[in-house]
Amino acid sequence: MAQDSARQAPVAPTTPARTLLPLIVPALVVGVLASLLFVGVSEVSEQLQHVLWQNLPDALGIGRYSVLWMLVMLTATGIVVGLVVWKAPGHAGPDPATIGLEAVPLPPMVLPGLLLATALMLAGGPSLGPENPIIAVNVGLTLWAGRRLAPRMPGGVWGALAESATIGALFGTPVAAALLISEALAGRQTKGALWDNVFAPLAAAGVGAMTTTLVAHPTFDLHLPPLGRPGWGDLLAVLVLAPLAALLGMAAVHVFPYVHGAFSRLGHPMLALPVGGVVLGLLAAVGGHLTLFKGLDQIGTLAADPEGWSAGQFATMAVVKLAAMLVATSCGFRGGRIFPSVFIGVAFGLFAHAVVPAVHPALGVAAGVLGMLLAITRQGWLSLFTAAVLVASPAILALLCIGSLPAWLLVTGRPQMQLRADGTPVR
Fold first, then answer.
1. Residues near 250 by Cβ (< 8 Å), separated by ≥ 6?
2. Which of 1, 161, 325, 372 has the fewest CB atoms inside 10 Å of its own CB, making it the most exposed?
3. Using one digit for the tens of pLDDT, what is the confidence trace for 359-384?
4. What residues form DSSP beta bridges with 425?
């Protein structure tokens, strides 16, 4: 009977090659340009960060990461970004608390202000990443150009190409984009086979990832000691740590609407963003300079010496970074929540290793990142992929798949770290 059922199951018709071939060139072009825009914004912000956090304090004779300088710089960043959000056309895009990885197409006139606000934020130190605004800019530019150069092509194709290309560029691999596309398509009615639907976006993501790799040489591998053969203790560790990290993330999700509401009541970006900058400066004074910025370089510093901080210090950094991400998103800084969430997960995993040395550091980090990303992003495939790629240990993958199950039960059906326009949580 099983064989008869398999024979009777409907098979999705495949798309002819002649339909897919015309999509290759647009996918290649979008992939290259999306990656170059991401790399360009990253390079500009890094150079500005070097000036603000090294050259300028050195010239003034102030400690680079002294409490005074962190408070001054984060407050100044709030003022400058507040000016951009206030005066730029379209106010530099929508409230970042209301958007996720899926970009809402923005008018071209809004995009320069959004890029400027993002670059200033990345250089100034708030705890957000570039992913959401860069995706939004690439989608907006691609739709604007695509509708003029190839008006017969559906607008949805251009948006899918730009989003996939940017995700590939951000992570340096098309696998992240392929997983996100597959997850998104699972909730939609699509024509044809799955691989036909992901063909052009995967091409764009692959070219975007290769362009970033060739130009910027990114790496996510933290070079932690490999796990080796997993044991029963490792299984117990991942079953405990991934849900605990998810609970920590859900605590932030729970208070998110209240923090956002408090900043919204200030009523103006020239109040909300400077006040947010002051709060971020005070948090940095507690957590230290490693809790600044998007967190990607900082996790490399933590992983290079897992024994270099105490359990209390790791716990402080995780909590402070989580609070800083919450404040930065709530007060209006333009940025995404994935990269700072990775830092929080890494600090949480190393905290677990410091408390219980039997917890392998690579397993602790992977489980912490997995649980935190599940709570913050609600993207299962992305969470698994990011957790696995950070430790580059094939033996951990099966453990992470098992650990994701209880963590997912904790987060599914509950509010997300994203709000509607009226301030209510998205479920």
1. 375, 410, 411, 414
2. 1
3. 999 999 999 999 999 999 888 888 99
4. 419
The b-or-e profile of 289-319 (16+ CB within 10 A means b, else e) is bbbbbbbbebbeebbeebeebeeebbbbbbb
140 to 107, 114, 146: CA distances (angstroms): 7, 11, 10
**How many Å apart are CA 159 and CA 92, to the nearest integer?**
19
Is 66 within 8 Å of 102 (Cβ atoms)?
A: no
Q: What is the pLDDT of residue 175?
A: 81
Q: Which token pair is 306?
A: 């897992």
Contacts 24+ apart (CB under 8 A), 256-259: 256/97, 256/326, 256/329, 256/330, 256/415, 256/417, 256/419, 256/425, 257/415, 257/419, 257/423, 257/424, 257/425, 259/326, 259/327, 259/330
- Looking at the DSSP bridge assignments, the partners of residue 129 are 336
Task: List alpha helices for 96-130, DSSP H.
Answer: 111-124
Is the pTM value of this prediction over 0.90? Answer: yes
Residue with tokens 């392929």: 178
State both tokens at 317: 């950094």
In order, the DSSP letters of 173-215 are SHHHHHHHHHHHHTTS--SS-HHHHHHHHHHHHHHHHHHHHHH
Residues in the chain: 427
Dist. CA 386–CA 388, nearest whole Å = 5
